[in-house]
Amino acid sequence: MAKISVVVPVYNVEKYLKECIDSIINQTLEDIEIICVNDGSTDSSLEILNDYAKKDSRIIVINKSNSGYGHTMNMGLNAATGEYVGIIESDDFADKNMFEDLYKLAKEYDADIVKGDWYNYWSKNKFARKNNRISSAKALKLTNSKQDKSLLRINPSVWSAIYKKEFLNKYNIRFLETPGASYQDLAFSFKIFALAERVILTDKAYLYYRQDNMNSSVKSKTKVYCVCDEYEEIDRFLEQYPDLKFEFKVQEEINRYNGYVSSVLRIDDSVKPEFVKVFSDHFKEEYNTGLLGNEFFKKINKNEFMTLINNPEKYIKVLKSIEKRRKFNQFRKNILSIHFRNGKLNLTLFGKEVI
Predict the structure, then answer these.
(1) Which residues contact 186 (CB under 8 A, 6 or more apart)?
(2) Nearest to 55 by CA among 79, 75, 74, 34
(3) Angle at CA 210, nearest 5°, toward 344 and 14?
(4) What's the average model confidence in pLDDT over 263-291?
(5) Percent of the chain with pLDDT over 70
(6) Which residues touch 320 (CB under 8 Å, ≥6 apart)?
């Protein structure tokens, strides 16, 4: 049994695939299996995978007709024989120490999940900026979502972590299979953090998450309603676990609200009114049930929320204004970031720590 099975879903990524596979085969942890699932690529991706498999016996290539990300991921998970499972998207790449470091933490804490931070990466300038999504104050402390609900708010970056295979199988945690869909890591991420008893976070970043692949499914503005499917899947999941529904239903609605906001900002103006109507109708119904109380409005601006359910057209204008401020702040952050970490001053210039 390998220590880690690395699942790599592949679809038309010939431009980036070699960089991805090289980063995996050169991991300092050598006891891994690499399961590459080709989802009916029409470029040279399959040929590239087969060439690598001839040279490295750890690489397993599964070739199938195109059926979408969820089915592709599930084939990889089902084929995995390792003690833990990691996921690397085929247009991303990993630091050579990623799996060795995460596996050491997994064994030290007998963790169901070990999750690290990641870098946003731009190919053109080879510019990487650490996300700083995981606080050093929460790093290396055994926890779970019942102790810390903020785990359920972590960006669903399924590729910056490893998962105990026994844990995934115990609860049959798999991806939602919807051909052509996007956002299919949302429900998976919610399920794993809702069910895991032993979670370890590390604020070290290992994964380089490519931002400028325009073929990435997250860039597709035609698939916005797939995010609704993911939250419906979470609803079905919570119905199976009444204790978790009682504990986490409001947090799910917080995630849904923020997820829908992100979707509105991403899609074309021509389809915004239709989607915001769906957005508004859902939350109007939830608000009228009395579910959304203090816990919800501690995280969600109530004035903006009331605008959403009472005047969806005005809400679109409000979001555009908020987005302009966000982009400016992000631009400023990319240039210069000053913060204190563990009592020390850190200065980040153009995404690189200089102090």
Answers:
(1) 156, 227, 230, 231, 234, 255, 259
(2) 34
(3) 150
(4) 93
(5) 87
(6) none
Mean pLDDT of 110-128: 92
What lies within 8 Å, CB to CB, of 55 at 6+ separation is none
- Tell me which residue has tokens 């939250």: 231
Residue 175 and residue 69: Cα distance in Å, rounded?
8
Looking at this protein, which amino acid is placed at residue 93? F
**pLDDT at residue 48 is higher than 50:** yes
The HSE-up count of residue 186 (CA atoms within 13 Å, CB side) is 24
- SS3 percent helix, strand, coil of the chain, rounded to 5, is 45, 20, 30
Q: pLDDT value at position 218?
A: 47
Instruction: Tell me how far apart the alpha carbons of residues 317 and 330 are, in angstroms, rounded to a whole number.
Output: 20
pLDDT 10s digits, 207-236? 999 987 555 544 445 577 888 999 999 999
Cβ contact 193:148 at 8 Å: no
Q: Dihedral through CA 332, CA 333, CA 334, CA 339, nearest 10? A: 140
**Comparison of pLDDT for 180 and 267, the residue scoring more:** 267
Mean pLDDT across 246-257 = 97
302: Cβ–Cβ under 8 A, 6 or more apart, which residues? none
Can you list the positions of beta strands (E) in 154-258?
161-164, 199-210
Residues 6+ apart with CB under 8 A from 167: 112, 113, 173, 192, 195, 196
User: Domains along the chain?
Assistant: 4-219 (3.90.550.10), 226-329 (no CATH)
Q: Is the pLDDT of residue 327 over 90?
A: no
Kindly tell me the burial class for residue 109, based on how many C-beta atoms sit within 10 Å of its own C-beta (0-12, 13-18, 19 or more): middle
